[in-house]
Design brief:
549 residues, seven-stranded mixed β-sheet, 25 strands
């Protein structure tokens, strides 16, 4: 017999997990809290909600409907935050365009996503002018004008300017209910081979990611936390994986938010100082750039909490940040996972960790956040031992993972082969359950019959006092199969006579103590002025292998 308590009342509200519901809490708890753009424009959460309504009305008047796709080309701004909410709340799809791709790739992604509307910041007018005749689906162009950005000559047929549209539109918009599995966002991976692949996420997935990560980040006793007393500033572009989902979390918590616009290192440090920023996230290369800029030399950065993702956190960079009082730690995920899967939050214990062990723990990928089923498996999809030694591919399940690649069923099937999402990352899990990423499948080096981790060698070289950045790649070798090559950027402000042999001896010392294999000692060390990066700041090892092979 059916349980009488399972019968719902005819008037009960099912409450679909929709992005619009994320606004209830900040409007109730912190309606007057500030959202700051470049230290120049300030608005409250109440104003944010009004501007979201105005944006929706303006887009609606231009023909945007449920299922339409709205593409955005902008820097990190309050406008982007408004698009994060207004567009999906209408039932439309937000495409966050990677403005660092080549013009041809940008045109491809906009066409592939089927964007109806394109919002363009003044700084990107030259790109859009060059590709506008290649855009197959865009019927409406919106211009984002900004003081200090000069418009080039162009023939783009803009319908209206962003602020003018909002000023002419009503703040009242009744956002409807619809299926929580409706697609909310689309963006494109930034792989180093082939065309970018579209990943997409539903309202349900984004809401669950927001709630779960909010719980995970608030759970530590102290340190590596994000809470209502923090001041948030992203250092991950808002076009990339929803800025790791953090703007949604910051908005739910009702914290002060600071959006920096285009990343200029000295200005970033000024915003940290002037606005009291306490929580950010970025890739390691951005962190290195910020710590190396002149403004950072004398700035007090203590109390700043930073998640490093998009690649390994080298021990040398972690130590440099900790020496400045920065609470730095790793987060792990990828474009296909929305993105966060795990966090390197220190476990409470009876005794404090020594510095070396604390650095090791902060640089690991950490423990899975709630609801994540994370495994390390062999080729037969069997779990490897959790002993910190046995390696395998990391495969995952979570309720917020992309269900496939847009319009690419073959790649989608490969991504989800065996019912788990395949990350293409190699790693191990230790006896405490902590994940360590050792390499990408395509980057691991096989030398002398042993698998050598390029990330591990990079981390060791980064400890050399004269090294600013390092990347390790494998090149073919007739005798050993492959041998590691280290590409090293030396610190600019430290006079040095360091040689290739000094770097090799530095790594050899770790080999002689048994920490790494003798095959991990680089055969070649090349000093370079800079390391090639992808459009989101990751090391472009495919390019490096092609150049230095």
């Amino acid at each position: 017999m059916q349980d009488e308590f399972m019968d719902s009342a005819p008037s009960a509200y099912a409450y679909p997990l929709l992005i619009k519901h994320l606004l209830h809490t900040p409007l109730a708890h912190a309606p007057d809290q500030e959202i700051v753009y470049r230290g120049q424009k300030r608005l409250t959460y109440t104003t944010l909600r009004e501007r979201i309504g105005r944006l929706a009305n303006g887009l609606s008047q231009l023909g945007t409907r449920h299922g339409s796709t709205v593409a955005v080309m902008d820097w990190d701004s309050h406008r982007y935050l408004e698009c994060y909410f207004a567009v999906p709340m209408m039932g439309a799809v937000l495409q966050t365009v990677n403005v660092r791709l080549s013009p041809a790739e940008i045109a491809y992604t906009i066409n592939h996503a089927g964007a109806d509307v394109l919002l363009v910041h003044t700084d990107f007018l030259p790109v859009v002018e060059a590709i506008k005749d290649q855009l197959e689906t865009v019927r409406t162009f919106l211009w984002i004008a900004e003081d200090g950005s000069e418009a080039c000559a162009h023939t783009i047929p803009f319908s209206v300017e962003y602020e003018a549209m909002l000023a002419a539109s009503s703040p009242s918009y009744e956002f409807p209910d619809f299926d929580e599995n409706t697609r909310a966002t689309t963006f494109y991976t930034t792989g180093t081979t082939g065309l970018p692949k579209g990943v997409y996420f539903s309202h349900r997935q984004l809401v669950l990611h927001t709630i779960t990560l909010m719980a995970a980040l608030s759970s530590p006793v102290s340190g590596q936390r994000f809470h209502r007393g923090d001041v948030y500033m992203p250092l991950t572009p808002m076009f990339h994986v929803h800025a790791w989902g953090m703007p949604y979390i910051a908005t739910v918590l009702g914290v002060k938010q600071v959006y920096p616009g285009r990343y200029v290192p000295d200005r970033l440090v000024q915003l940290v100082r002037d606005e009291g920023v306490t929580f950010s996230h970025c890739v390691g290369t951005i962190m290195h750039m910020v710590l190396s800029c002149p403004e950072a030399k004398t700035a007090d950065l203590s109390g700043w909490k930073i998640i490093i993702g998009g690649g390994a956190l080298p021990h040398g960079l972690a130590r440099a940040a900790l020496d400045r009082g920065i609470d730095i730690f790793t987060g792990y995920g990828m474009s296909e996972t929305c993105p966060v899967l795990s966090l390197a939050q220190l476990k409470p214990g009876p005794e404090p960790l020594d510095t070396d062990e604390e650095v090791r723990q902060r640089c690991k990928a950490g423990l899975p956040v709630p609801l994540v089923d994370l495994r390390v498996v062999n080729d037969a999809m069997k779990d490897v031992a959790h002993d910190g030694q046995a390696h395998g591919e990391i495969v995952v399940r979570a309720p917020w993972l992309t269900q496939g690649y847009l319009k690419n069923p073959a790649a989608s099937a490969q991504l989800w082969e065996g019912g788990y999402l395949h990350t293409q990352d190699i790693g191990n899990i230790d006896t405490a359950g902590c994940l360590q990423i050792t390499d990408r499948i395509k980057d691991v080096i096989k030398s002398g019959g042993e698998w050598v981790s390029s990330l591990e060698i990079e981390s060791l070289i980064s400890r050399h006092p004269d090294v600013a950045e390092v990347a390790v790649i494998g090149i073919k070798d007739d005798k050993w199969g492959e041998r590691p090559v280290a590409l090293v950027v030396l610190k600019a402000d430290v006079p040095t006579t360091v040689t290739e042999e000094d770097i090799r001896k530095h790594v050899l010392a770790f080999s002689e103590t048994g920490q790494i294999s003798k095959y991990a000692v680089p055969q070649i060390v090349k000093f370079v002025d800079a390391l090639e990066k992808t459009s989101v700041g990751k090391m472009n090892k495919k390019w490096m292998r092609d150049q230095f092979a």
